[in-house]
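Re: that backbone. Tokens:
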């Protein structure tokens, strides 16, 4: 049974903020290539990826729920 829950304005704003920060951090990492150490670049890309996952948190939760219900059957 699918849950139909609407997202609140706070959840929408935080999702947009996660995606925006992900893009900003990735662009910052790209602009710093060659001027800082590789570990800093890798750290920025890791932070960008984590922000991307934060933006996709509701999608990830839905996928986990679908997989969990499919494996119970």
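Recovered sequence:
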């Amino acid at each position: 049974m699918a849950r139909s829950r609407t997202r609140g304005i706070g959840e929408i704003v935080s999702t947009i903020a996660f995606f925006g920060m992900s893009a900003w951090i990735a662009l910052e990492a790209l602009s710093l290539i060659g001027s800082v150490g590789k570990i800093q670049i890798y750290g920025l890309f890791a932070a960008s990826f984590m922000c991307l996952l934060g933006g996709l948190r509701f999608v990830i939760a839905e996928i986990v729920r679908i997989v969990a219900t499919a494996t119970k059957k």
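Residues 16 and 55 are 7 Å apart (CA to CA). The two ends are 14 Å apart (CA to CA).
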